Amino acid sequence: MTIIKVIKGTKDILPQDAGAWQRLEAKALEVFSKYGYREIRTPIFEATELFARGVGDTTDIVNKEMYTFEKSDRSLTLRPENTAGVVRSFIENGMARLSAPVKLWYKGPMFRYERPQAGRQRQFHQVGVEMFGIKESSADAEVIMLAVDYLKSLGLNDLVVELNSLGCPKCREEYKAKIKEVLKPEFENLCEDCQNRYEKNPLRLLDCKVESCKAIFEKPEIQKVIQSDFICEECAEHYSSLKTYLDKLGVKYVENKLLVRGLDYYNRTVFEIKSNNLGSQNAVCGGGRYDSLVKNLGGEDTPAVGWAMGMERLNSLLPEVEPEKLDGYIVSNSPLEAFALAQELRDAGKRVEFDLSNKKFTKQLEKASKTANFALILGEDEINLNKVSVKNLETSEQVTVDRNMVLNQLEK
Ligand SMILES: [Zn+2]
Ligand SMILES: [Zn+2]
Hints:
CATH topology of the largest domain: BirA Bifunctional Protein, domain 2
Helix content: 25-40%
Number of helices: 16
Bound molecules: zinc ion
CATH superfamily of the largest domain: Bira Bifunctional Protein, Domain 2
Strand content: 15-25%
Largest sheet: 8 strands, mixed
Shape: elongated
Number of strands: 16
Oligomer: single chain
Mean pLDDT: 92
C-alpha cells in the first residue's frame, strides 16, 4: 500500500522539536502578561469576506494565497493572518465598550498558498499582539517595547527596529500621487507586479525586491520624492513623539522610508524588527498602526496598533532546546511494585518512568542512564525490606534508603 505523506508546505512538529515551540509560547505568556495583554483564540477559518475586506483586496495574500473553500453555500477561508479575525471578535463581542486599551495576544497556525521554500511553509505559525482604543503614540511605543522585550527574553540580542510613518489617508494621497507621477516615465521598465500595483497601491512598489525596480527607485529625482517629508503636521507630531518614547526607553531604531509593509490597512506607524543573530540580518517582527480597520469591518471607530512574528523564523534563530530528563527511572523485575512506586512519586510531582515490558535488569539500567537523573532500583531485596536503592546517574553514587525517603533523595 502507498504511504500517505504530509502535505507539501506543511510539517509535523515532532516531540524532539516541541520543546522549542513550548519555549516560544511560555515566554509569550510570561512577557505579555507583564504588560497586561490577555490571550484570545479565534477560529482558524472565517468568512472569506472578512479577509477580502480586512486584509485588503490588492494584496497578494487575498489575491493569490488564500485557502478558500465552499461549505453549505458559504465561502470560507483558512486564516492567512490573525489581525482580521481578532478585529472581527473585538467588534462582535462589544469589546469597544470595555475601558481602553483592550490588549490582546494570540498564537497559532496561519495558512497561505505560497511556493514552499526554505523557511516558508503553507501552514506556518505566528504569535502577535493587538492593542485597541489608544490613538496616542505611547501605544505604538508600548507594542514595540513589548516586541523587543519578548525577543530579548528568548535570547535574541542585537535588535534593530526599522521605523516609518505612512501618514494618514489625507496626507498619504498626495504622496501616492507624487510617487505615481515621478514613476510614470519609468512605467514600462517596472516589473509586472509593480505595474499591476501602480494604480491601486503605489506605495507597495517601494518594497519591491526586484533588482531592476530597486535600481529605478535609486534614481536621484525619484529618491527626492520618496525621501520627502510628506506627512501632515499631526502625523509628524505623532511620529516624532513615538521616537521620543523609543529614545527614552533606549530602543535602537533606524528610519526607513522604503518600509511600507505588505498589508493595505496600515496608517502612520509601521515597523519591522531585525535581528543580527547568527551573522545575517533577519526580519523577525512586523507591525504597525491600523486606525481604520475596526470601522472598515463594521465596528465603531477605534484606533489600533499591533504586530506579528513568524514562529518558524524565531525558532530557526534560537539554539535547540535540550530535552528535559526524567527525575527517576525505576529498575525492577516487579512491574507491579515499580508501577506503585512510580505512582507515589508522580503524585508528588516527579517525572518518573519504569519498564512496562519487564526487560532484563541491564537493559533497564541502560535506559535509565540515557533518560533520567536517578535510577531507582527496586530489586527483590529492596522490595522485601521496603527500601529503594537510589543511584545518581551523573556521579554513579548509590545509596539505599527507606522507601518513604526516596522523594527526599531525589531532591538532594
Ligand atoms: Zn497625516
Ligand atoms: Zn517591481
